[in-house]
Prior knowledge:
Order of helices and strands: EEEEHHHHEEEEEEEEE
Pfam families: DUF6266
Structural class: alpha+beta
Distance between the termini: 55 Å
Number of domains: 1
CATH architecture: Sandwich
InterPro entries: DUF6266
CATH topology: Immunoglobulin-like
Amino acid sequence: MAILKSNLPDGFSGKTGNEVVYLLNGKWVKRSIGARKKTQSIPLLASQQRMKLMNSFLKAANTFFKTGFGLIASLEIKSPYCVAYSSNHKAVQGVYPNQFIDYSKLIWSEGTLENSPAVNVNIALNGLEFTWETSTESSNSRSNDHVMLMAYLPEKELAIFETSGNKRALGIDTLILPASKEQVIVETYICFIASDHSSISTSIYTGRFTWGVNY
């Protein structure tokens, strides 16, 4: 940051561009700042790579996370984005420079609402057909809970989702996917949310599929 000084030749002290102006032994000095030559440490590089991997899906599904982690975020006085990051950092596996995301470990929502005891996903003509067992053993689930569906395409860093799908009692819903001229990997997830949004379930991974060309 540069500070305006009326008694300086250039009028500023501090950093401006690639130069810095400062007071040394009673005299104002201006010098150029060279490029960083120090090699970054492996832990720092690993942290930067981890952040890049995390951001690839966090940014793609920011709207979903506002619902999926909204309840916990309000309790912890944090943003849903921060809670999502904290809940998913362990999904980054491997050792730098070969770190990767284990998509089966990603969590898109977190809460205590009961999930369905049985979920199945199939490829349909226009997308993914999710079916689930409508009855649960938990007293906190309701027939009017709504399903939330997520399809993440890692190669395109694209998230396609529904935050207020069919009611739990219906037992079926379809997530529409855009047509693709090439085959792409789709990672899928499901969770449920109360009709009044007072509770939500922790998302579960429902498998990997290939979409495009023939569909």
